[in-house]
Amino acid sequence: MQVRRFLLAALTVASALATADDQSCKGRNDLPRVLEHVCYNGTPDPVSCPYHDDAFGIFENNRAPYHYLLVPRQKVCGIENEALWQSGTHDWFAEAWRLRHVFADAKPVSGGVPLARVGIAINSIPGRSQGQLHVHISCVEQGIAKQLATQASQFNSSWQPLDLNTSDGVQHYLARRLAGPDIDADVFATLAKAHPELAADKGNITAFAASVADGNTQRPLILIGHYSDHNQGHAEDLLDGCGNVQAEPKPQ
């Protein structure tokens, strides 16, 4: 019943934004140019671009001390992209989770960035500035991490409501804890089957994933929010740029 109330409340918010297609992504289009310059213009710096292949690259976003973006080379719209929600297609969200270790290893830091502290996020259309699909990779904000650790045991493979206390007030999400260490490539297709109401308004969806402890292992907990009075559609806010991690001094 709680899940139903969450969905009904989310869907009463009328979207003033039309769902974009691959030819008209909502937002600026700066990221492909930055990606090409940082990762494909000669030999990339391993800190600025710790990973790239023919399909996508992961590069440093200088807005925060430890904040990276996964960006496809081809023109791909963000969360509203139909392909992201279809089974058997390339899931960039799952790819960012699989490669989050390249972020954790990208910079020499005092004590390192523990992999368990790394989270990923995709913002909704109203919660973003860039139209090109990009997945944020950074540290989970410590207050959020504590809340997730406290509540993680109550979640399983079914979507359940989760309220988080954030700097913007209480934010409503649906949460699902996965059985294994990886995120299924069909995570959004699975969400669409379980809750077609949300898939029908995919441009207003924001997604987040973090590790939660399960005994001696870490398992991903996925959060789905809907842009509304109870969610800013900006799951990136659950990351903090690893603000309390100090870089080792550069050699003189």
Q: Trace the largest sheet across and list its strands.
A: 1-2-3-5-4-8-9-7-6
For the sheet with most strands, the description reads: 9 strands, antiparallel
CATH topology-level name: HIT family, subunit A
For this structure, what is the CATH homologous superfamily? HIT family -  CDH-like
Query: If you average the pLDDT, what whole number results?
Result: 85
- Per CATH, the architecture is 2-Layer Sandwich
Per DSSP E runs of 2 or more residues, the count of β-strands stands at: 9
Structure, explained:
This protein is α+β, with helices and mostly antiparallel strands. It is built from seven helices and nine strands. Helix content is 21%, strand content 23%. A nine-stranded antiparallel beta sheet has the order 1-2-3-5-4-8-9-7-6, with helices on both faces. The longest helix is centred in the N-terminal third of the chain and has 10 residues, at 2-11. The N and C termini lie far apart (61 Å). It is a single-pass membrane protein. Keywords: Cell membrane, Hydrolase, Lipid biosynthesis, Lipid metabolism, Membrane, Phospholipid biosynthesis, Phospholipid metabolism, Signal, Transmembrane, Transmembrane helix.
